[in-house]
Amino acid sequence: MTDDRSRRPGSALRAVAKRFRPAPAPLTVNDRLLRWARRIGEFGVLDREYFEILVGRTFASDAEAIEFYVLNDGSRGLSLSPLIEPEWLHDRQPDERMSWYDFLHQESGDLVATSPVFDSAVYAASVDSSSRPSTPLDALRHFLAHATAATPMPVPESRPGPAPTWADQRARALDTARRFAAAQRRTRRRYRKTWGGPDLEQARETYSAGLARLDAEKPVVSIILPTHDRAGRLEQAIASVVAQTYTAWQLIVVDDGSTDDTPEVLARLTASEPRITSIAQDPAGAAAARNTGLANVTGSYIAFLDSDNTWRPSHLEIAVAALLQGDSPAVYTGLRMVGLNNTADAAAESQETFRGEPGTLDDLLAGNFIDLNALVVSAVAVADIAPFDTSLKRWIDYEFVLRLASRSGVPAYVDHLSVDYDNTFDPQRLSSREGASWQEVAVARQLIDWEGLESSAAARRADLVSVVMPVYREWRMTLRAIEAVLASAASGPDVEVVVVDNASQRSVSAILTAWFGDEARVRVLRQDRNLNFALGSDVGLAATTGSVVVMLNNDTEVQAGWLAPLLRELDDPDCLGAQPLLLYPEGTVQAAGTVFGGDKVLPWHFLAGHPRADVDRAAQTAFSAITAAAAAFRAADLIRWRGFDPVFANGLEDVDLCLRALASAESGEAHFAVALDSVVIHHESKSPGRDDARITNRRIFDERWQGSYPASEPGRYSAAGFVFAGVSAGEPKGHDVMVRSSQPVVLRPDRVVADGPWAGRPSLRWALKVSPGLRERAGELAASLRKRGQEVVLDEPDAFYRSSCSLDDVAVALIDADRFVPQPGAVNVLWDPAGVADPLATAAFALHAGPGGIVRAPSTPSDVEALVLEALAKR
């Protein structure tokens, strides 16, 4: 039968219309995401209460919540359910290119764990065969439909501890979400583009009772204004004080050793205004200048103004009225800021932002939102916490406000815009020159009660070792590191692990808490902000209860029997701390102690990049410093030393600690130890921002220890059979850092065999490059060579090109599927060419050896080559 549908009336017209119809608009990213939102809604796995707590908002429907998730998850790492942890699932689904929801939508038969507490295979096995789920999504749906509060969670078999009930796990997840949401709120950006607050008349109405008292009592406000070489800006700042609507004030300007026209400006202004007092002093910094001002105040209240900034006329009027009307000894007002304190705003038009809102002490610890220029405080409250800390080089005002808040309560917020703050980039400003880690120094004093820790140190458990593990944005290695510690503890002393999560993305604490939630020996402490290694470790130390504390990087993997040798070293009262032998995964040395090259030479790790055999030969165990990547200390000692100095941001804090400890030691035999029979593998990950402060760390370290560096230690290399020839000077990194990077120059001297059949003949250094399947053959060759007084090291494939290869005289490639490129400057031997898969290897090596003897050799070998040929022939 002929199909004549194309001849029906109108079909031709429709075809023509279709040809000229505009093409549909392409789907946008949001279109695709919203399409996925509808599909996710069909999954039926959303836990809306959990998600609302997590994001700190409510939704009118499940659909609205899921749309919010798909449109915001890219930058926030959210989760829709305690049963689905996207990063965990991503690592276990067969195709890592898929999103978690795409994987579930595909209805894959791969029954994987969708979170640390929900293994779909374990759950499916617990369900009767007649209704057994066949996909992860089916398992999730079935669980949610049938689980009761008492249902045990189907956890992966390897998860430590007992399986929690669904009620317990969900409560734990809600608590974790609640803590995360609270931290997000505390650390939110507190700036806004518009003010939107009350105007002056509204403020006067709000504080009318205080204004009445102000008019009646007229208390004097003492204003402290430190300045240094700001003559051009100083006059504007002072003019803003003179223009105040409240006139009972005293201005004390402290000239901190200015070399510009500041003295002349002050002389002119003080002559015309008797309420202004000028005090000159030698340059000592802003903190010292403010302390000079405090020593000369006479008012009942104290306010602060920097010479870069100005007040609006109503600042003192409203602030002091609020003080008189309220019950807080201190208040702060709103702030208008111009600039972002970066080089981009120095030349272009600067951005304008506003800041002003109330907060708690926890908010304040998470980040400063009270500027000193906006603060007015009673003289009594200032006297209780004065003076300003002159040891700080930055965040001096933040530390002062923190002390004020902890002693007298957080100052009350006055919703009135009265301060104009210049935050444009200025290289003369401390905030532009000094490192950001001074913020950690300021906050550390509120986070850690060292005196309290010291007084309770004797009560710590003598039978417990506390492991402190800081982590930043990495849960996979952290999980492995913790499990290695717990596994090793089965045959040793009791341990506890305190994980300090330095404000990582949500998934880190969520996954670690879910995985170790029923393991009593593990605690996860999430911080509101990144405290860096030093302060993060100190916070962890404060939370421990053992008499011995081990600082352990989260990218390490302890080996069996690692802990006992460290504790053995600490049995020696002269040992202040002990580290294991740190090896890279391929077996080369990462750190075997820290050595020095003399004054103004930065220290380095002993025999880094060498094979372990060199460390064993050197047998060096006593050092002036060790690495804190893995190190054991007596808790009482760490507390007495006040832990790591937070001024060092992820670098040199461990060396500084060791030098401070040695400087305070009473015994002349005090030292730090390396336990060579304790081994820890260091994977040495690179956390984001890990080296951001490297230059600043070097400058601070050199300023502190210049003239007191430990002496150069060439003898350590002699013990390993090498000659320390000096240091290789690197380029200066940062011209304000008066110390250059350096590396040791190590040579292997000519040596002769001391005894045996080859006595008096040259002893060469042989590096056997060994494929895993040829280890036994390599061992036989090594034994034969050692009988002839030869020095032998073995390298696995990942260590074929270790940094210390230049010390090797001979490189022997015992390889099959692996490749080894001949080493310049060495005699290169290819062992058993017939068993080598690489077609380029035969031509690349001038010397072949194997079961058939010497296959190829130089026609006129050198003395070294002749010895190699003879040694191989007699293997």
From TrEMBL:
InterPro entries: Glyco_trans_2-like, Glycosyltransf_2, Nucleotide-diphossugar_trans. CDD domains: Glyco_tranf_GTA_type. Gene3D superfamilies: Spore Coat Polysaccharide Biosynthesis Protein SpsA, Chain A (3.90.550.10). It comes from the Bacteria. Residues 222-346, 466-578 form the Glycosyltransferase 2-like domain. This is Glycosyltransferase 2-like domain-containing protein. It comes from Frondihabitans sucicola.
